[in-house]
Amino acid sequence: MKHFPIFLAVEGRRIVLSGGGDAAMAKLRLLMKTEAHLTVIAEDVADDIRKWEAQGKLRIINRAMEPGDAICAALFYAANEDDVEDARVATIAHAEGALVNIVDNLGDSQFITPAIVDRDPVTIAIGTEGAAPVLARAIKADLEERLPSSLGVLARIGKTFRHAVDVLPMGKKRRDFWSAFYFGAGPKAIAERGETGVLPALETLLDDQVMTARSAGHVDLVGAGPGDPELLTLKARNAIDKADVVIHDRLVTPEILELARREAIIIDAGKEGFGKSMAQSDIDALIVQHALDGHHVVRLKAGDPTVFGRLDEEVEAIEVHNISYSIIPGITAASAAVANIGQSLTKRGRNSAVRLITGHDTKGYADHDWRALAAPGEVAAIYMGKKSARFIQGRLLMHGADPATPVTIIENVSRANQRIIATTLAEMEPTMTQANLTGPAITFYGLAPRDAAAQAYKLKEFA
Ligand code: SAH
């Protein structure tokens, strides 16, 4: 690119043109579209140019150009159709600081004038760096035909309406609105009712689109964290604030549900492990139905929705109906629990991996790679592991796990009634049964609370 296209601010600035014949007139026809102050300097001036002067479109200095004539000019055109005279006036204008164009002399010009498709304020400039003027004209003709002549009027009125469109969500909804206006409702309004019809058409279109944007419905699949409302993410909090309908798990605490709007519909879709429950397909249907009714649905799940949350089934149901959705992560029980025993999920030199496993799945007790888990230094966070505790303990011992491996059970993580029970694999049962766990509990296999770990280390050292 030897020429860089820009749009120069010329409103109220001087543009000076030397010459009074055909070449001058051709340029003046373009320049008169601008809001610049035009000065024409020439000994012989065509009648049309005089007419334009009489109409107040430009000013004529009826003599050959002299030094001083181009002072403060933004642009200067040499259009005398005489090489010697053009070179002379170009030198003057150049010295006086104007950008200079010599008509039909690309090499000595500092700028060139493109072919222009004018739908002010929409302006399309086409340039070929002088290589193919025919091509430029063909492209111009094509665009002239393709772009509605009302486009400029529409753009001007549209500009005054931009703020009103802020009620639509950013992105696709707004883009759709503007393309429906420029290529549908706008040209139609002009054809039927002229320029005065445009603003009412914009208002009607916006009302319609706001209605459809509202009626589209949306689902946020939100992680509620382990229970403490302060462990909600800001995103989760905002989604709950906006929800029309909240469909929540059994484990979501009342303090978090409190945050929903008073008018919000709150639905308990609680599922009890092994107990009576709402079928997953019923939950999917419930989410979809409320979203199709045009509601902002928050599907609120304990912890992180991506961890043992049956998220994918719900997402698939939502996608089938083309409903927009987003997933908002949360703090999973393992993260909150490990913080509360002062440990890390992974630790250099102890465990370079951690497994999140479930005690049972839809078929019953879940099977795992027990041999791998039984190896020294393994750490696992066991979700839904209360009823399956004896099964897990038996499998691990059977596969050679050290009976002294620490096991920590944390019940009601992050809640006022949190309990931490530190034991070993050998004692895991009956300890868990005796503890009479009534709240949700997570079991760490291979992790002791930090204090207990320090204690055990000291005992070993002094033995
Ligand atoms: N998506 C959730 C897990 C759902 S499975 C998350 O990321 O945490 C349900 C299991 O999560 C429970 O059986 C329990 O093992 C664990 N859990 C969830 N909340 C808990 C809490 N506050 N305290 C202890 N365990 C919890």
TrEMBL record:
Active site: 249, 271
Biological or metabolic pathway of the protein: Porphyrin-containing compound metabolism; siroheme biosynthesis; precorrin-2 from uroporphyrinogen III: step 1/1; Porphyrin-containing compound metabolism; siroheme biosynthesis; sirohydrochlorin from precorrin-2: step 1/1
Catalytic activity: precorrin-2 + NAD(+) = sirohydrochlorin + NADH + 2 H(+)
UniProt KW Acetylation keyword: no
Domain of life, per lineage: Bacteria
PROSITE patterns (alphabetical): SUMT_1 (PS00839), SUMT_2 (PS00840)
Gene Ontology terms for molecular function: NAD binding; precorrin-2 dehydrogenase activity; sirohydrochlorin ferrochelatase activity; uroporphyrin-III C-methyltransferase activity
One Pfam family linked to the record: NAD_binding_7
Biological process, per Gene Ontology: cobalamin biosynthetic process; methylation; siroheme biosynthetic process
Keyword entries, A-Z: Cobalamin biosynthesis, Lyase, Methyltransferase, Multifunctional enzyme, NAD, Oxidoreductase, Porphyrin biosynthesis, S-adenosyl-L-methionine, Transferase
Entry-linked InterPro entries: 4pyrrol_Mease, 4pyrrol_Methylase_sf, 4pyrrole_Mease_sub1, 4pyrrole_Mease_sub2, CobA/CysG_C, NAD(P)-bd_dom_sf, Siro_Cobalamin_biosynth, Sirohaem_synth
Domain Tetrapyrrole methylase span(s) in chain numbering: 221-428
Residue ranges constituting the Sirohaem synthase dimerisation domain according to the UniProt record: 150-206
UniProt entry tagged with the keyword Oxidoreductase: yes
Record family assignment: Belongs to the precorrin methyltransferase family.
Protein name per UniProt: Uroporphyrin-III C-methyltransferase / precorrin-2 dehydrogenase / sirohydrochlorin ferrochelatase
